[in-house]
Amino acid sequence: MLDAISSAHPLSSYAVQLIDYLLQQAISLQASDIHRDQLIRANAVLVRLKLLSNMDITEQRRPQDGYFNHSLGDSSIDIRASCLPGHWGEKVVLRLQHPEIKQRTIHQLGLDIQQSQCLINYLQQPQGLMLITGPTGSGKSVTLHSILMHLHQPHRNLVSAEDPVEMGLDGVHQTEVNLHIDLDFSHILRSMLRQDPDVIMLGEMRDSVSADVSIKAAQTGHLVLSSLHTRSVAETINRLQGLAVDLAGLSHCLDLVVNQRLLRCLCQQCCRPLDRQQLQAFDSDEIQQARHDYQQQFGPIAPAMAIGCQYCLQGYRGRSGIFSLLALDNHMRTAIRQRQLELLQAPINLRQQGLYKVLAGMTTMAELNRVIVN
Ligand SMILES: [Zn+2]
Predict the structure, then answer these.
(1) Is 89 found in the same domain as 172?
(2) Spacing, Cα 313 to ligand 1 middle (Å)
(3) What are phi and psi of 364, to 5 degrees?
(4) Whole-model pTM?
(5) pLDDT tens digits for range 160-210
(6) 212 C-alpha to center of ligand 1: Å?
(7) Helix (H) or strand (E) segment spanning residue 146
(8) CATH number, residue 90
């Protein structure tokens, strides 16, 4: 099929080369997404991308999702494609699953030492509920996958329900949601429970049935991991209540809420330390407080600025997470039952952890402000 189309379209060899070139660039710059509206001669490119991703090239009115694998030297990269019709034509977005991100361990996510230890301690529990929260594109799936990899042991039965399965994981039985055949999260979850799992990962807590089944599973000897598109612990509890979850039941089984965002990292090839004048401008009240805490814990600060070079995009290369972890104690469980959500405060919030990364020269104030408004 591919060859037939290739020879039929004079522009298609150009499209093949252009897509190969773009993917190579995106891989070497560690870009997370490619948007097709940056491309020229778009029709041939669009057809090529649809073919690669196993989409229907004649369908132009409905959204389509697909997947392909691109080889680069000895390694290969998985790519998720999504196509959306629009007034000016179809738009394709490619999401790249970089191999080094795919294999990220808990220690490589961006958690500080206390946070990684808290998470690893929690994962030794045989049962309970853990939620990863954050807006779309905040790295929740990567965190969930690295946790599953951490839990992978021959004697453990690990299962996951995902929409879609973004990365294949060794030792995990992964089932994909398929709404065309009415296979949704709650269906998969119910079937999973009949297979005696130890750990259940539910890609997203999206409806009241899957929320209810997850909580019951967490109360009956299973470790349940899931995610929600929420921005804070309070919003998470409100969302669950909106899904008709019983707060008393939730307060008994919910053990850990992780809130996260992704920050672009400064390119270490070209970033430059702030000079004296820039340091003065940089030194706000917020920075002074963070600097005091930072210096006590980690030593001298080293803030830097983005420059830009051939190895990066506008001075940034790769991304790292910032996290806030709330491990629930008895007071917090009571606070959930009594809906005193203002009492649910993590020891370190996202903004604070982001400021430490700015002070360490890993990212910039502009990047932190882009992701988390002060
Ligand atoms: Zn650079």
Answers:
(1) no
(2) 7
(3) -120, 165
(4) 0.85
(5) 999 888 788 889 999 999 988 999 999 999 999 999 999 999 999 989 999
(6) 48
(7) helix 140-151
(8) 3.30.450.90
